[in-house]
Amino acid sequence: QVQLVESGGGLVQPGGSLRLSCATSGITFSRFRMGWYRQAPGKQRELVASITTTGATNYADSVKGRFTVSREIAKNTVYLQMNSLKPEDTAVYYCNAARIVSLNEYWGQGTQVTVSS
Fold first, then answer.
1. Fewer CB within 10 Å of terminal CB in the chain, N or C?
2. CA 1 to chain centre
3. φ, ψ dihedrals at 93, nearest 5°
4. Could you tell me how far CA 37 lies from the centroid of its own chain?
5. Contact 13, 117 (CB under 8 A)
């Protein structure tokens, strides 16, 4: 059974930081591209950051220079370090695991991030 479990969300003031974690099980973690997506109320889900099987990273323009995605293969876990948070970063953040060659894709349940004073 595949599981992606996010943690680390919460309420933070503007300018603050949070670190999201996504612990996976049931997949060969090193073979999956891992992504962080977010969905704000009334908006479509969007890609925030991703890290490929080779460790290459990609970021949405809105978070470049503020967010960092990383992974720890030994722990089957991917992280999203979020610094200099803004109110517009408020959303539910989802972890995604995708393996294009086999068309496998999995999602976590999401974790709420609220940036507000």
1. N
2. 21
3. -100, 130
4. 6
5. yes
Buried b (16+ CB within 10 A) or exposed e, 35-51: bbbbeeeeeeeeebbbb
Question: What is the rounded CA–CA span in Å between residue 111 and residue 109?
Answer: 7
Tokens 């974790």 -> residue: 111
Instruction: Give dist(CA 28, CA 19) in Å, integer.
Output: 23
- Residue 101: the pLDDT is 86
Return all residues near 117 (Cβ < 8 A) that are at least 6 apart: 13, 14
User: Residue for token digits 């953040």?
Assistant: 93
Confidence label for 96 from pLDDT (cuts 50, 70 and 90): very high
Token pair of 12 as six digits: 């933070």
